[in-house]
Amino acid sequence: MRSSATFLLLLTVLLLPATADAAKRQVPREWLGVVVDGPLNDPAYAAAPGEWDQMAGSGVEAVRTAFYWNSIQPTGPETFDFSIKDQLVLAAAKRGLRVLPVVHGTPTWAALNPGDAGSPPRDTADFARLLNALVARYGPNGSLWVEHPEVGKQPIRAWQIWNEPNMTRYWNVAPWAPSYVEFLKVAHRTLNAADPGSKTILAGLPNESWKSLQAIYDAGARGHFDVVALHPYTGKPKNVVRIVKIIRRVMERNKGKALPIWLTELSWPAGVGKAKQEGDFSTTDSGQAKRLKEGLKLLSEGRKQYKLERVYWYTWLSTEGITSSAFDYSGLRRLRGGVLIDTPALTVFRRAARQLQGCAKQVGDARRCRT
Predict the structure, then answer these.
(1) Residue (of 183, 190, 179) closest to 215 by Cα position
(2) 140-173: pLDDT as tens digits
(3) Which of 79, 219, 245, 362 has the smallest count of CB within 10 Å of its CB?
(4) SS3 of 67, please?
(5) Alpha carbon distance 321, 206 (integer Å)
(6) Percentage of residues in the chain having pLDDT higher than 90
(7) d(CA 288, CA 106)
(8) Degrees (nearest 5) of the Cα angle 121, 127, 130?
């Protein structure tokens, strides 16, 4: 009887942490992520184990990264260079991190206006060919997973179609919405054919995003995307929630009530006093940490009400002073004079991740729940 009782007690103890951890988790897995760009697009950093281990250990569960078309097909439609993105996707997969690619950056040979970095593509067929190749490489039956059986398959199923097309920096034709929606429709059909379980993510919309979203609906986009994406750059965390509320109303007016919202960029760069181009959302290092803490709290509290499925901080790693932009100071980690440093915001991110992911008292997943 005594050994039986001991066995039952041991079994109870072993089961309790997983149950307690599951009960404490406030957000679903992959809700909290970061953007991976800047130095991590450099081959020297793309698969740096220390950086990816830091991400996973800090509570990052998803990453968003640019799949630059002009890097994948720099010379023409027949050849593809996946080398840098292979490194990044494999590094993420080894740590169980879901990758969201944002596909943009027209190569010169495919541009409507060659030589203009903001030119949209000339031909939808070229873009469709690219998407088919990407799914064939990174999707559920992707060749990358066949070539690397040692890595647990983490197929890419969500694809973000372009970045901020309501800004001439990324899509320089006017009016922008009709031509963008033309490519969005082709992308949606192509992805569904290549992977019926895929999701088409709308481009992240900054500035007066509610007006831009209405323009997209007016151009006939309803039914051609699965997720609305926002880049709500504003000075106060409470105003981020206000923007989400306004967007939700626009979606409801346009019969998009069932669709979720993803914040594919959220940030308060610490560029005050350091960058020439600050923006009214720029702050100090301490202000960045404070706003990040408040922002994640408000967004997690409103997650169910507004169907807010993902939040990506911009960005994980940035290089200070490389341009005159405040975004040089947006990283949770930064390269300062060639030396990698942690910011106060990283400490806040880690603590928030622990709380949101159910790691405050019980450690159900030591890799993701450690500080």
Answers:
(1) 179
(2) 999 999 999 999 999 999 999 999 999 999 999 9
(3) 79
(4) strand
(5) 23
(6) 84
(7) 33
(8) 135
Half-sphere exposure of 176 toward its Cβ, with a 13 Å CA cutoff? 20
As a whole number, the mean pLDDT across the chain is 91
Euclidean distance between CA atoms 272 and 350, whole angstroms: 24
Q: How many helices (H) and strands (E) does the chain have?
A: 12, 11
For each of the domains in the chain, give its residue range(s) and CATH number, in order of start. Answer: 27-369 (3.20.20.80)
Cα distance between residue 371 and residue 369, in whole Å: 7
CB neighbour burial string for 67-88, b if at least 16 within 10 angstroms, e if fewer: bbbbbbbeeeeeeeebebbbbb
Phi, then psi, of 354 in degrees rounded to 5:
-55, -45
- The pTM of this model reads 0.91
Two structure tokens written together for 240: 């981020």
Selection from 4, 102, 22 nearest residue 62 by Cα:
102
